[in-house]
C-alpha cells in the first residue's frame, strides 16, 4: 500500500514537470513569432509602424509617395487648372489696382498743404546788432575788433540768428580823420584779410554779415547829397559786395529831406540789384532812421529800401493797456502788410532793459514774434543795462560784476538768454512764424493775445498780461483751442513743458508763447 502511494506521488511529479516544459516551449514559440512580425512590419518616415490593411500589408496612405514630375506636368495642362490659374492671376491684379486706386483717391481728396510763399532771407531770421568796438576784444587791447567778432560766431549760432550787422568803418570816422577810406577796414578794427577770414567762417556757420554805414556823418563837410558823396557811396557798395558783404544798414538821418533820401536809396538799390542776380544771393538795403519817426514812416510807405527799420515798440511801457498794445501792433501789421519791415527797441541810444525796466523781457517776446525782422542789440539778450551813457563792452564772464553771458548760461533753464534763443529760432524753424496769418485772439481784462496760423502747421499763440494781477483764462471753451499747448518761452522764465489751456494762469506783466498742433 505504501509502495502504491509513493508511485502515485512520483507520477504526479512527472506530470507537473512535463506541463512546465510544455509551457516553456510554448513561450519560446510565441517570442519567435513576435520577432517575425516586427521584422516584416513596414515603418513610416518617422520610424513608427505603418498601419496594416486587412491582408497584412501596409495601407495605401503609407504607400503613397506623391505625383511624379511627369504626372504633375500632365495634370497642369488640363483645362480646369489652366482656368484656375488664370482666375487667380486676374484676381491678384484686380486687388492690386483697387488698392492703388484707393490710395490715389485718398491723396486727391485729402486737404492739400498750402505752398510756402517765397521769402527773402532777411525775413526769415533775427538780425544781431554788433558794436564791433565793444563786442569782443581778441588781442587784449581793450577794444573790440574783427578777430574778436570771429571768436564769438559760435555764440551767435547758438543764439539762432542768421545775420549780423557790424561796423567796419566807425561812425565817427569823419571827425577823427581828414579823409575816410570807404573801401578798407578801419585800423582800429583790424585788417581786410582778417575780415575775409571772418566772412569765410561766418559762411560756414550760415551767418550773413551786413555792413553798418553812416554816409551823412562821413560827409560832414556839407557834401551830403552831392555828386561826390553819391559816387563814393556807389564805389563803396560795389567794393563791399565784391568782398561778400550780404547787405548794408544805412543811417539816413542827416541825408536830406524825405524825397532826397528816397532818391538816394533808389540809386543805391540799383547798385545792389546788380549783385542780386539768379546766381548771386539777394543783397539787402536797410534804412535806419533811428530817432526820426516821421522819416521812418515815410520810408515804410514810399521808400526804396528793402527793409526800413521802425522803433514803434519803444512807445510801450508798464503803464500801457491792452488797447494801447492792440493799436500799436495793428499799426505795425498794416505797415508790414505789403512790405517787409525791421523792428528794433534797443540800440546805440539805450538798452531795452534800461528803457523799460521790468518789462524788457515781455517786450523782447513781442519783438521776436511780431511780423517783421527783429534787430537784437548786443546785450539785450542777457538783460544788459546802460552805464553812464558809455558803450559797454559785452560782459562774457562774471569778472565785471554785472549781468553776463557766463551766469546766464549757467542758469540756462531759466535765463533771458534762453528765452531769446528759443524765440529767435521760431523765425526760421516754424512755418507759422515765417508765413503765418496774424489773428487777434483776445483784447480784454488787461490781456492782449494773438495767433500766428499757417495752413496745417503747428500754431503759435502769444499772450501778454499787462495788468497788475494774475489772470486765469479758459481758451478751450471761449476760443476753441485744444486742451493743452507746449511752452516755447515765457518772460517769467519759470515755465516748462505743457500747460492746461482751460485754466491758463498769466502772471502780471507776463508775455507767454505757446505752440499747439493743428486739428482738422
Primary descriptors:
520 residues; alpha/beta; TIM Barrel; Immunoglobulin-like; 8-stranded parallel beta barrel; 6-stranded antiparallel β-sheet; 20 helices; elongated; disordered N terminus; L-leucine transmembrane transporter activity; transmembrane
Q: Total strand count, please?
A: 16
Structural class by secondary-structure content: alpha/beta
- CATH C-level class of the largest domain: Alpha Beta
Q: Mean of residue pLDDT?
A: 85
Approximate helicity band: 40-55%
Spatial strand order of the main sheet = 1-2-3-4-5-6-7-8
- The backbone outline, from C-alpha atoms, is elongated
SS field, number of helical segments: 20
Contiguous low-pLDDT stretches (5 residues minimum) are: 1-7, 34-39
**Beta-strand residue fraction:** 15-25%
Full CATH superfamily name of the largest domain = Glycosidases
CATH architectural group of the largest domain: Alpha-Beta Barrel
Largest sheet, strands/sense/barrel? 8 strands, parallel, barrel
Radius of gyration: 45 Å
Give the CA-CA distance, first to last residue: 126 Å
CATH topology description of the largest domain = TIM Barrel
Q: What is the total number of structural domains?
A: 2
Amino acid at each position: 500500500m505504501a509502495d502504491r502511494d509513493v508511485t502515485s506521488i512520483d507520477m504526479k511529479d512527472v506530470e507537473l514537470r512535463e506541463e512546465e516544459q510544455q509551457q516553456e516551449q510554448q513561450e519560446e514559440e510565441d517570442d519567435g513569432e513576435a520577432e517575425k512580425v516586427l521584422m516584416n512590419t513596414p515603418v513610416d518616415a518617422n520610424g513608427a509602424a505603418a498601419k496594416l490593411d486587412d491582408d497584412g500589408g501596409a495601407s495605401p496612405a503609407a504607400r503613397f509617395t506623391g505625383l511624379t514630375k511627369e504626372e504633375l506636368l500632365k495634370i497642369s495642362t488640363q483645362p480646369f487648372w489652366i482656368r484656375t490659374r488664370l482666375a487667380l492671376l486676374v484676381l491678384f491684379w484686380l486687388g492690386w489696382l483697387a488698392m492703388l486706386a484707393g490710395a490715389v483717391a485718398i491723396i486727391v481728396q485729402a486737404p492739400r498743404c498750402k505752398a510756402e510763399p517765397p521769402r527773402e532771407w532777411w525775413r526769415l531770421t533775427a538780425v544781431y546788432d554788433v558794436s564791433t568796438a565793444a563786442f569782443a576784444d581778441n588781442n587784449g587791447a581793450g577794444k573790440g575788433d574783427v578777430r574778436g567778432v570771429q571768436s564769438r560766431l559760435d555764440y551767435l549760432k547758438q543764439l539762432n540768428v542768421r545775420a549780423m550787422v557790424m561796423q567796419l568803418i566807425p561812425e565817427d570816422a569823419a571827425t577823427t580823420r581828414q579823409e575816410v577810406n570807404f573801401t578798407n577796414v578801419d585800423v582800429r578794427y583790424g585788417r581786410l584779410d582778417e575780415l575775409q577770414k571772418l566772412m569765410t567762417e561766418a559762411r560756414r556757420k550760415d551767418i550773413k554779415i551786413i555792413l553798418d554805414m553812416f554816409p551823412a556823418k562821413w560827409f560832414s563837410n556839407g557834401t551830403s547829397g552831392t555828386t561826390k558823396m553819391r559816387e563814393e557811396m556807389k564805389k563803396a557798395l560795389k567794393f563791399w559786395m565784391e568782398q561778400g558783404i550780404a547787405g548794408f544798414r544805412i543811417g539816413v538821418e542827416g541825408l536830406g529831406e524825405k524825397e532826397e533820401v528816397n532818391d538816394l536809396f533808389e540809386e543805391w538799390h540799383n547798385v545792389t540789384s546788380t549783385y542780386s542776380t539768379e546766381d548771386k544771393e539777394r543783397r539787402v538795403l536797410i534804412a535806419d532812421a533811428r530817432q526820426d519817426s516821421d522819416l521812418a514812416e515815410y520810408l515804410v510807405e514810399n521808400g526804396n529800401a528793402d527793409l526800413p527799420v521802425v522803433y514803434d515798440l519803444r512807445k510801450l511801457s508798464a503803464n500801457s493797456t491792452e488797447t494801447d498794445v492792440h493799436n500799436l501792433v495793428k499799426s505795425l501789421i498794416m505797415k508790414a502788410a505789403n512790405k517787409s519791415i525791421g523792428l528794433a527797441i534797443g540800440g546805440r541810444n539805450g538798452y531795452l532793459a534800461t528803457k523799460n525796466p521790468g518789462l524788457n523781457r515781455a517786450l523782447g517776446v513781442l519783438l521776436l514774434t511780431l511780423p517783421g525782422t527783429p534787430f537784437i542789440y548786443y546785450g539785450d539778450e542777457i538783460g544788459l543795462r546802460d552805464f553812464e551813457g558809455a558803450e559797454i563792452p559785452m560782459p562774457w564772464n562774471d569778472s565785471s560784476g554785472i549781468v553776463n553771458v557766463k551766469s546766464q548760461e549757467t542758469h540756462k533753464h531759466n535765463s533771458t538768454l534762453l528765452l531769446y534763443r528759443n524765440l529767435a529760432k521760431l523765425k526760421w524753424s516754424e512755418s507759422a512764424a515765417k508765413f503765418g496769418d496774424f489773428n487777434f485772439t483776445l483784447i480784454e481784462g488787461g490781456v492782449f493775445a494773438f495767433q500766428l496760423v499757417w495752413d496745417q502747421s503747428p500754431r503759435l499763440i502769444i499772450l501778454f498780461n499787462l495788468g497788475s494781477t494774475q489772470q486765469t483764462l479758459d481758451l478751450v471753451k471761449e476760443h476753441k483751442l485744444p486742451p493743452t499747448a507746449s511752452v516755447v518761452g515765457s518772460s517769467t522764465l519759470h515755465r516748462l513743458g505743457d500747460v492746461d489751456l482751460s485754466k491758463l494762469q498769466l502772471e502780471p506783466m507776463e508775455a507767454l508763447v505757446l505752440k499747439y498742433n493743428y486739428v482738422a
